[in-house]
Amino acid sequence: MGKVIKYIVFAILFVALAVGSGFYFTLYSLNKGENISLEADPSADKNLTKKLNILVLGLDAGTIGVDEEHNHYRSDTMMVVSIDPAEKKINVLSIPRDTRVRIPGVGYQKINAAMAYGGPELAVKTVKDLLGVPIHHYVAINYSGFRKIVDAIGGVEINVERRMKYVDPAGGLYIDLEPGLQVLDGEKAEQFVRFRQYPDGDLGRIKAQQKFVQAALKSLLKPSTLLRLPQIVKAVQETVRTDMETGDIMKLANLVRQIDQDSVKMYILPGEGRYISGISYFIPYESEMEKTVKEVFFGENANIKVAVLNGSGYAGIAKKVAEKLEEMGFTVVRVANADSFDYDTTTIIYPSEKREDAEKIAKVFANARMKEEKMEGEGLTTIIVGKDVQRD
After folding, report:
1. Could you tell me the residue range of the domain that residue 275 belongs to?
2. Disulfide: which of 14, 155, 309, 365 matches 183 by Cβ 3.0-4.6 Å?
């Protein structure tokens, strides 16, 4: 359920936010009671030039009978939503709840326990360490919130492909759905996304949840949803926990409304179920995980190899530039000094067949000079960092 919850929240916050300016007005009036301009902020996109990774958490029911203040929720599932403003794309990576990881300050546990031990902040740190990518924000919601949001949308139409029946009194879970095309209200939607009796276990559940995500997006994008925006906003405000400011959400909404639904791709962390000391875990495949992470978060940049040379004479500047490039997904294969420290302008040297790669790298710098040269063998695109690159 967490995953769906997560994406529904994300969809509400961004897709629904982007449906129309009336939503902006409603959100602000509910939050601050003030009048704002409905015109798009022309400077908004200037702050959204870099990729943004958001951890979306769907929380379980916690411990039955424990009061809200002292209850410790686990994340039923997790996913990281990666937004690429330049390419107008969104990639979503699902992380199975039983993934075995080292939780900072705790030790090796299932990843869903990070939330219980240290809240969303520890969950963010754990996912960041697992994937090796920055996590900029989080969004969290529990079962009750999920039901309220689905009801606020007006339900989600989906084809239930199999009979779903499961009862867990201890966990307060009662699932009873017939197959067929139908509109699921909040209660039935929760049943759909929490059902686990699949041949491939939790992976089957994640696939079903991703199917629900697509159906929910279609529901959100219906013209009739505009009439329900006040209820949607109220449900989101009452149930969603996030570290994002309203202004940040507005900017993201302005961006996401420009992204086609076909540009939203879903991924699952590759791995397999395995028992360790009698406990069932999901163990990621290291090599495949690395490839998936590169595809999800770095795209084509991961295939671009580059050398970074210090041509400015400023100590440590080549290393700093290399680190920035690696954060953006480029593969830095060499960091060294240039033939001299007399370069005033950063220069990108490339063989003719790699001009496209060089142009992508050039976007990282304000005024880089591009220079094509013939090279023997596999020519390597090389950046000579000049004095024009700031050291701060």
Report:
1. 2-297
2. 155
